[in-house]
Write a structure and sequence with these properties.
By secondary structure, the protein is mainly alpha-helical. Helix content is 79%, strand content 0%. The N and C termini lie far apart (53 Å).
Length: 524
């Protein structure tokens, strides 16, 4: 029931925000009083939206200059308008990303139980299998991220999804094709299934971000990356709706077969929506909107390179040779530990350190971050897309790290909600901007490898955090202790000191970083 509660709250908040912002924007564009209609929509959002649609434009000759409030509403909503008019190719990438996000997170959420119940592994070995999948994907992105740079977006997506389709079929049929037990035939078949997903996803995610770079213009790029990040989190949220009824009716393998079908649907999306014709039209449209016809010449020049020349170009522009790039991506590890604590610490903290509602419904609080990200990321991006990237990284990581100290006040629903909301706002401020920055500083035809390397510290974060999180839980939030005897305040104080290293380091390194800090590859 708690999962459905998150669903209903999330959908209600999305609808509420839409009605309020849409009402205010329409009123402003029609020369009506934006603040009054905004206040009206806050109280009665659907009614205000319907009424403003039938209002005639004002003939009072209102000045075309907007007030600060009106400019804020326009700035907040304009990126959504711009993105709504983007190409069929980008629509296909976003639709594919939602389907794949739903499938990936849906499988991961059941994978340990699947290995327990169907492959016959114990908890430790099942955990290693989940780690093999999640960690393997990060390594695969590092090694295979360049695929999109070599063969293009559409082919990369088709190969990636085909590999994942084969992998998920093998994973699903493994219990019926072999003998259960560690190292036995069912386990080996399941591991080959994991390998297919690892290889496919290692190609898939860098390709999607390369696609956003290719299919957005200077006005829609920030929102394009933000929406892709938001859709990933939406994918992490949707299994809460789909999985429980399917699992109860058909079991875990039945759920897996549904995810196999969704992977096939994803292939169809690429085949019939991201067509070659749609890609050519979208790329030409972006060039026209950017007023940058030189990209065509650069592409032709790269196409004429020999394999040896391409290798020299790759080595010359390889990101690991740039000390500033290395510092920038690895200094994010401390604040990224808070991501890992969402599943390594937060479930145990909310179920052990609380009594009553929070403890009984801890899944609600654990699953709140993805839906908040889906709601907040586009809004935060709309308000901050014109701000300096490095400054936003400092502010965003500071906003994300600082609320950890709220939990030092002790476990209560108010400190918990304050932490979750403020941490999510901080995440929405910096994470999409970081991904956009990595994609945009990449030389042409190297976006995929840059995205793969940019994700490598996240792999290290998951490994590093998992090494100590269990010890902290055993000592500060043990399962066999009463909430009153726990010392969760010290645990979160230490975690706060770890996370705050990132914004402090970025701040003190600002002058050095900005001497050679790139915002576009063309600027380098």
């Amino acid at each position: 029931m708690s999962d459905l509660l998150v669903v209903f709250i999330g959908l209600a908040v999305i609808a509420y925000i839409f009605f309020v912002l849409a009402t205010a924007r329409i009123a402003i564009k029609n020369g009506l009083s934006g603040p009054l209609w905004f206040l009206f929509s806050i109280v009665l959002p659907p009614l205000a939206f319907l009424l403003v649609l039938f209002q005639k434009k004002s003939d009072t000759g209102k000045s075309e200059e907007f007030t600060y409030f009106e400019s804020t509403i326009i700035d907040l909503t304009q990126p959504f308008i711009d993105l709504a008019h983007t190409s069929r190719g980008l629509l296909g990438v976003n639709l594919s990303y939602v389907l794949e996000g739903l499938t990936y997170f849906g499988v991961v959420g059941l994978l340990a139980i699947f290995f327990n119940d169907f492959i016959g592994l114990n908890d430790v070995d099942a955990g290693w299998m989940v780690g093999l999948l999640t960690g393997g994907i990060t390594i695969a992105m590092l090694l295979l991220g360049a695929t999109v740079d070599w063969i293009g977006l559409r082919k990369s997506l088709l190969i990636a999804l085909s590999l994942m389709l084969i992998g998920r079929i093998l994973l699903t049929v493994s219990p019926s094709l072999g003998i259960p037990g560690f190292g036995n035939s069912s386990h080996i078949i399941a591991m080959f299934g994991i390998l297919g997903v690892v290889l496919g996803y290692g190609i898939y995610q860098p390709a999607c971000y390369a696609g956003v770079k290719q299919l957005t213009n200077k006005n829609t790029a920030a929102m394009g990356y933000a929406m892709l990040y938001a859709l990933m989190n939406l994918g992490g949220f949707l299994p809460a709706i789909i999985s429980p009824p399917l699992r109860k009716a058909y079991g875990i393998t039945g759920v897996f077969w549904v995810y196999v079908a969704l992977t096939f649907v994803g292939i169809m999306v690429v085949l019939f929506i991201i067509t070659n014709k749609a890609m050519v039209k979208a790329v030409n449209q972006v060039r026209k909107e950017n007023g940058n016809e030189d990209e065509k010449d650069e592409k032709d020049e790269m196409a004429e390179m020999t394999t040896k020349e391409k290798m020299k170009f790759y080595l010359k522009n390889f990101p690991l040779r740039d000390l500033r790039f290395l510092f920038f991506i690895f200094i994010l590890i401390p604040v990224q530990t808070l991501f890992a604590h969402n599943w390594l610490t937060l479930p145990q903290y909310t179920s052990r350190a609380f009594d009553g509602f929070v403890s009984d419904n801890f899944e609600f609080f654990v699953n709140l971050n993805p839906i908040l990200i889906f709601i907040l990321t586009p809004m935060v991006t709309a308000l901050t897309s014109k701000r300096d990237t490095y400054t936003m990284m400092i502010i965003g990581t500071a906003v994300m790290a600082s609320p950890t100290f709220i939990l030092v006040m002790g476990p209560s629903i108010y400190t918990l909600m304050g932490y979750l909301v403020l941490m999510t706002i901080g995440e929405a401020m910096w994470q999409p901007r970081f991904l956009q920055w990595v994609a945009e500083i990449a030389p042409k035809n190297m976006t995929g490898i840059y995205m793969g390397i940019g994700q490598f510290p996240w792999f290290l974060t998951k490994i590093i955090t998992s090494l100590y999180s269990g010890w902290f839980l055993m000592n500060y939030c043990p399962s066999d202790a009463l909430p009153a005897t726990m010392n969760t305040e010290m645990m979160w104080l230490i975690y706060g000191f770890i996370a705050i290293i990132t914004p402090i380091s970025l701040f003190f390194a600002k002058s050095w970083m900005q001497k050679g800090f790139k915002t576009k590859h063309a600027d380098s």
